[in-house]
From TrEMBL:
Keywords for this protein: Antibiotic resistance, Cell membrane, Membrane, Transmembrane, Transmembrane helix, Transport
Provenance organism: Kribbella italica
GO molecular function: ABC-type transporter activity
Gene Ontology cellular-component terms listed: ATP-binding cassette (ABC) transporter complex
Protein name as catalogued: Transport permease protein
Protein's membrane topology: Multi-pass membrane protein
Regions that span the bilayer: 24-47, 59-80, 101-128, 140-162, 169-188, 232-250
UniProt-listed InterPro entries: ABC2_TM, ABC2_TM_bact-type, ABC_2_transport, Nod_factor_ABC_transporter
Amino acid sequence: MRWALVDGWTIAQRTLLHWRMQPGLVIFGWLFPVLMLLMFGALLGGAMEMPGGTSYYELLVPGIFALSMLFGLEGTMTAITTDAAKGVTDRFRSLPMSSAAVVLGRCIADMLDSVVTLVVLAATGLALGWRWHGSLLEALAAFGLLLLLRFALLWVGIFIGLSVRNAQSVTVIQVAIWPIGFLSSAFVNTSTMPDWLGAVAQWNPMSSTATAARALFGNPGGSAGSWIGEHALAGAVIWPLLMVVVFLPLSARRFRNLSR
């Protein structure tokens, strides 16, 4: 395990070096969720009726937090696929290093990037008037749930990146990712949706994390009407753990059996 972590950190440093050489792409990745926050806040804020006259950003900011954990996943998939297609992955596999280091290193680098993304988003939210109303420990727990979701989604992205044949295929998958993110409680309470659509949105892992984060931050926007809606905190833990349990072993197996 120690060598796997050491080798994984070495591969993570390679990714960080690539980002340092292309800072524009990294900065855009940090600012894109900010753009989404500003755009949807301006488009929907005036039409949303919030309880007690609170700002729409009280509901929107935690939703964008959760949605930002999905953003950039196509970059992970593309990087993994490109390395495999160019033979870089095969070179790593020929070295005396942990077989998990390549995918683990990418995961470590992307998690560091996600931390920066949340910091930038939180600073923007605070500037727009969003606040958390609970304790600092509850706020940290909310950010922990968001990063747990990101960790789980990364393993889904890594598995897909190892499974597709070329970077062009990632574009097709990216088209399917966006509806998954938007069909959630990120922008509105699921109670405002038609019953069948609200039920689908509530069972979206994004909704569980967004609703749980709002509860921990003390922001409005809780969902009810189903078990998953009333137990969002449990869902925010169970969904990511299920994804990790399924896709981490699949990614490791796919990497060991990789043949291109």
